[in-house]
Specification:
Protein name: Xaa-Pro dipeptidyl-peptidase C-terminal domain-containing protein
Keywords: Hydrolase
Radius of gyration: 27 Å
Distance between the termini: 55 Å
Domain Xaa-Pro dipeptidyl-peptidase C-terminal: 322-560
InterPro entries: AB_hydrolase_fold, CocE/Ser_esterase, Galactose-bd-like_sf, Xaa-Pro-like_dom, Xaa-Pro_dipept_C, Xaa-Pro_dipeptidyl-ppase/CocE
CATH architecture of the largest domain: 3-Layer(aba) Sandwich
Helix content: 10-25%
Pfam families: Peptidase_S15, PepX_C
Amino acid sequence: MYSRSELSGRGFGPNGVSVIVHHELVLKDGTTLALKAWFPILDRPGGPTFEHDPIEVYCEPDWKKECRQIKAFPTVLEYIPYGKSSYTIQRDHMRHPWLASHGYVVIRADMRGSGDSTGLYFDEYLSQEQQDACELIDWIVEQEWSNGKVGMYGKSWGGFNGLQVAHNQPSGIKAVISLYSTDNRFTDDIHYKGGCVIGNGMLSWAAVMFTWNCRPPHPKFCNDWKSQWKTKMELASSSWIEQWLSHQVQDSYWKHGSIDQDYSRIQIPVLAIGGWHDGYTNAVFRMVDQVPNCRAIIGPWSHDWPDVALPGPQVGLMMECLEFWNHHLKGEKIKRQDEVKKMIWYQCQGDLPPGPSVESWPGKWRQANNTRPVDVVTFQCGENGELFKRTSSEENPRFCFSKRRLSFNGSSGLWCGEWLSFGAPDLAGNQSFANARDATWTTKHLDRQLPMFGFPKVHIEGYVSKGFKGCLVARLCDVFPDGKSRLLSYGVKNLTHLIHEDQTFSIEIQLDAIGYTVNPGHSLSISFSTGFWPTIWPIPSSPKGQDWVVWMQSADLRLPIVEESTWNKEEEPPLYKVLVGYSILSARFLSFSSPSPSFSVVVGSTVVSLVLSSRMKLVPKLPCYGPSLERRTLRPANFERTLSMGLSNPRNTLQMSNDEGSFLFPTHDMVVGENEECTYSMDGDNANTAKAVVRHEYECVYHVSTADCQKVFITTKCSMRGNATHFFIESKLHVQLNGQTFFERVYHHQIERQCV
């Protein structure tokens, strides 16, 4: 149990918190969902609902503050398949008790077939998953400790299914906070992009879930855990990549769970959160425009929580969530929630040279009531690689340059970074080498800032060789005065079904959304290629070994611009003005749920209390959450990406090693560790030789200090290659218990290619 002094300065609410470590909810079909719950302290948390469940006290009430004696609370639900008793113990410990201290019941549920729950599941976002969530919500609102209002909250999978459950319209759900999710599972998820297979995403994610789906339930909560574990692997351990590759167009498989099929079904308030270095930001723009009651925040973040994510700056995510929940689940009238505009974003300033990591972006927060650009600036591709500005489409008809020939370039994407960044040094590096080999047009040095916000677009016309099958990739870069080039955005389109009978094409490619200001003295470049390996799996050469070729004849680039004079600027808060010239030794939130947030800060030896006007702050800037669990490092985490280019042979190999380390958690008497290695190789520009291999290891040791110690070690190896007609997938699984083989299996799949 934490003392109040240990929680000081972390923004905790006045309520004490009790933890229901494990509760089993039996669904109508007999399947058991495993729940963990955090309660504001009552005589017996949850009353008779949890009378036989183990209880821990996280913290006592803050007796210096008045705690309202109420018996019914709103509930916030996180519903994911990652294991409440193992994989998510650290992040749950930091966030869920914090929210409970502000007067919420927080429930963390393991989905059917995952963690400590029973049953089986066979893919992402199935109807059964959503039906179970609706039944769980119905159960929550019937409990005596519930005020009848439930909010769903989550990142990635938990962000996806929050939207999907809201689309099902259970009566108890009243609001959703969705981080890094999508409205369209085909166009904006980790499987396909622009109608092409994501080479460094689909197999990697399939390998992760192949491993995680074979983790056992915690022996503490399941008497027959070995039998249940083995049955799950025998019936539901196959890699999901077979299903994903079997649906290569946007068919009913992908439309299920895509809320863009009918945005109007989500009438409740939604807070959508995205990051410029995350793979799911495009959907945020569409949801702001299409979901009836949706607002959004986009920061510079990768696929991690905005209060810890890199690149920074980080923000007070939990404070933002608390204010949103207070407004929509407690009915508190918070002026900022009504007045803030629909889109808040961080405009990155292009000061930093390209590199694999960014600690914190320079820039400023902005807001607007829609996602439409104030202006569109058009650049035209001309002769000799010049990219020049067009003043008017009427005065300057589309310029046709001498045709440029594009054949497959196997190295175009080697410096582009990971499709899904988690903030490690995995961002795009200097693009100069790749751009030099591709068809590239560059502007002269800009004489003023170019602030972009929204979707860049390119329009291309040309023709292709007979029988062409392939894609076209467009990449937008900021070229620094020293010649280094930062990748800003890119877009992909599969051309195969867009070619006219005379082999010509006229297409538009929408690049990923961006919030970035190019500095004066820099240049912009646009590059085109027919490959982007390993981000995009290459469509191979023809069966006869001939390269398919694209000839470009004209292209223009349209950039969405926000003028400085029209931006809704965030003023520097009074805190900054008061404390200029002083050293701030500590800062503590006293309240953010009230209309005027208050702080106590230590300036020198003096404690100063300040009240800030909430209209001054677009986002709370001080991250607040609970303390981390104690953990001891057994193997430190390490991340590396390396590229080797053959000299005596043509093979280029990109390797990514993400060792998340191994750690002992004394309070849980458990060790958890994980390691992933991905290898992507190709012989020069020979698309037929592309191969991906992902090796994943997971270790978990239960009851470390007891005679009943159980050591689990799971190894998977997934490989993918293709020829002109098929993909070939091999997935190997080997599971050890206490050093002995417990289960193993090998899966082989051959899947016909449909022009991807």
